[in-house]
Specification:
Number of helices: 3
Strand order of the largest sheet: 2-1-3-4-5
Radius of gyration: 14 Å
Largest sheet: 5 strands, mixed
Number of strands: 5
Structural class: alpha+beta
Shape: globular
Length: 120
Amino acid sequence: MSIESQREVAESIGVPVARRHIFLCCDQTKPKCCDLHRGLVAWEFLKTRLKELGLSDQGGILRTKANCLRVCEDGPIAVVYPEGTWYAQCDPPVLERIIQEHLIGGRPVADAVITAHRLE
């Protein structure tokens, strides 16, 4: 694959218009923070909801399935950038709130936040 082809893919998935990027710990090699099935259910929910709401691709929200985010308890764990907000218990109800309140509304979901550290 050429660098030009990779640039085209990056453009097609919305990298140039991204406002936020959510990483979700799921499908782990050695599940620790939560049961493997629970993490995969969360991932499918996140992927489906972002698509339903028109937030995927050119909608401004990038998503990445992470093997491990190293906070190995009370998962699934998620982190949203650029704010660097880390979340616990990211099952579908919490993910829906993260989507509505943080990814769309710009306000972290305080009662699910583990910590926050913006990378600059």
